Write the structure tokens for this entry.
Amino acid sequence: MKTPVMEMKSVSKHFAMTAALSKVSLALYPGEVHALVGENGAGKSTLIKIMTGIHRATEGEILLDGDPVTIQNTQQAQALGVAAIYQEPMVFPDLDVAENIFISHRDLGPFVKWRDMYDNARDIIRTLGVTLDVDIPASGLTLAEQQTVEIARAISLKVRVLIMDEPTASLSAHEVTQLMNVVRTLREQGVAILYISHRLEEVFEIADRVTVLRDGQHISTNPIADVTSDGLIRDMVGREIDDFFGKRTKRTRQDVLLSVRGLTKENVFTDINFDIHRGEVLCFAGLIGARRTDVGLALFGIEPADRGEVSFEGQPVEITTPEQAIALGIAYSSEDRRKLGLAMSMSITANASLPTLRKYLSGLGLIHRSDESAMAESYRQKLNIRTPSIHTTVGTLSGGNQQKVMLSKWLNVKPKLLIFDEPTRGIDVGAKAEVHQIVNELAAEGVAVIVISSDLPEVLAMADRILVMREGQQMGIFDAEDATQENIMSLATGQTTLAAAG
């Protein structure tokens, strides 16, 4: 039997009184893709941080080729042949591709042999089976190309264990296919790959074995041929799930809250027309580049439209700033938690009160901390934000819990219309179900919800109606009862005309 290239044996990690990992074991073999799955907060990130030297294990040991090793930092991990790439690639935009590939090398002497470096970079790119010029600036690369550069960098360091953490979260379907081909090439070259993803269809496509973590503990490890999607989900969440997205709630259509006619932003989107009723869930569907998010940003006043008519509660309105949108009762939960959603260095409480801070100010301009804390605690309980304290820094939370914090700050606005952009991107199946339930509850309370989502099963499960866009054009609107993945994709890819959509 093969010796694992890397093995974690009974590894535990404690942060103060919290056990992030408890006696977790994991073996990675050369030429194997080993998937690691689990809900946000299951311990996946902690485990890979121990493997790459960011954290030190409290208990347990790490073996490399059967011998115990201590990995104290990322440089030592790289020297041992252990590297990681993440969903947000870390490249230097002002350097070219070859310079990015060899940026981590410190063993090439005081002078750069430029011709050799570019030749070696081309050789590495060629072994990955992709086409990429090594002398172009990294600033112009797509996300998929940036990830290719990171993989090439790892190969240049003679990687033996490559950890891929949610590598496809922001990629198009075509880019995902390209990345999968690269992963297969690495497997053929004998690299051990730890593949972390919330997309179970990718796990079944690429993995040889799969390990499930839950609440910091090892639940199961099995060959992929011996598991099912339902079985994996059951292991991940600890309960049976027949239909994880749940049944779409049948809702009675109320009066029109928002009416949009001819909304246009030059060179971005053109002639968008729709109504949304109180208590209705309207989903925007489409492929990457459809400009759905741009419509949401325009309605919230972040990137105002150039022309068009918007009516809110029967009255014509002009929304040019987020302040105007909030005053009307419109909230926007961004797909980009880090840039537009949350202040990562601030607490849950501070984030939850940001849009409504004036509510908690005294006449002297001081914050009533008790009122602010009571509000944050109420949302912590209502949204099941998994943290022992509302004073926890948001940047330390899992993706699903960050999403709930972002939602809490907008729910505290008491919106009449909530624009929810990619609400479940990068979060686990358990958190997805909770978000879906929250949307259903908001609609039941009479809140109108616009959901922008690239997840078609999610769209079909949540929507009352579905607006399909393609390259800035509105292609059609379906009632949920008439919508299928096939006819949505037919519009989204331009195979069906607006007239045919009805």
In short: The longest helix spans residues 173-188. The two ends are 61 Å apart (CA to CA). The chain has a mean pLDDT of 86.
